[in-house]
């Protein structure tokens, strides 16, 4: 399938995609702060550079984009129709890397919660999920 936009335009589009401070992440940060929790952002010394880190609780929250992390069952988590030979391995490797990071974090004694972009933007009961995760003892 041929791309409908020019190579230059596609390059600009892809370059504009950020990995930090996106709307879903900011929404989660706002909820956690409103609940009275304080946290660190994007700690580079931890596997996967988690979005929110609660050091005193030894807990982490990842906010994953449905496309980039291939959220199963989500329409945004599907493979593109063009350049499958490029996107297939790239997105599969993202999934593998996520699993490796979670395993390394667990080994270090961290508990992690992964929130998906679609759940946050659809207004799902994210606040309740975050509260339960942060209040749980284990």
Protein model, in words:
It is a single chain. The chain has helices at residues 7-15, 23-34, 84-107, 117-121, 126-135; strands at residues 40-41, 52-54, 59-64, 111-116. The protein is of the alpha+beta class. Helix 3 (84-107) links the parallel strand 3 (59-64) and strand 4 (111-116). The protein has five helices and four strands; from the N terminus they run ααβββαβαα.
| Run of helices and strands | HHEEEHEHH
Range of helix content: 40-55%
Number of helix segments? Answer: 5
Structural class: alpha+beta
Strand content: 5-15%
Nearest-integer average pLDDT: 88
Quaternary status: single chain
Shape: globular
Count of beta strands: 4
The biggest beta sheet is recorded as:
4 strands, mixed
**Strand ordering within the main sheet:** 1-2-3-4
The parts where pLDDT drops under 50 for at least 5 residues are none
Q: How far apart are the termini?
A: 49 Å
Q: What is the strand and helix layout of this fold?
A:
Elements lengths: L6 H9 L7 H12 L5 E2 L10 E3 L4 E6 L19 H24 L3 E6 H5 L4 H10 L3
Short description:
The protein is of the alpha+beta class.
Task: Give keywords.
alpha+beta, four-stranded mixed beta sheet, 12% strand, globular
